[in-house]
Amino acid sequence: xxxxxxxxDYLFYSYLLDECQLDIFFTMAKTYNLDCPVARTxxxxxERWTMLILRDLLLEGPRRFQxxxxxxxGVAPNTLxxxxxxxxxxxxxxxxxxxxxxxxLEYQLTEKGKTLGPILQAxxxxxxxxxxx
Length: 133
Prior knowledge:
By secondary structure, the protein is an alpha+beta fold. It contains seven helices and five strands; from the N terminus they run ββαααβααββαα. A hairpin with a 2-residue loop joins strand 4 and strand 5. The N terminus is likely disordered.
């Protein structure tokens, strides 16, 4: 007989994973932590939605939270907020207050963020050549 346990939306067979293995699974590092330029770059831009946020800011210029949420169909507000906060901490974007009550920000690329433009262009070109709609 198989016993099931539900852990944070994941269903595991109890005979496959014990509690120790689950702790390791749920605390997996969010960074590569490698001394490699590609890994360090992915630490900055490798999370889901980050490159698409950069795309929108490169193509459209400064954008408000609502604009980004509408453009990125399927992104949860808390996820978008977390990505924007992380990107701001990494120096890729900055937020400018445009309303104090309630506080609202407009996001724009920093000079550092703008330097990712050629990388996004290369990804776009590769996708046009090697993927289908």
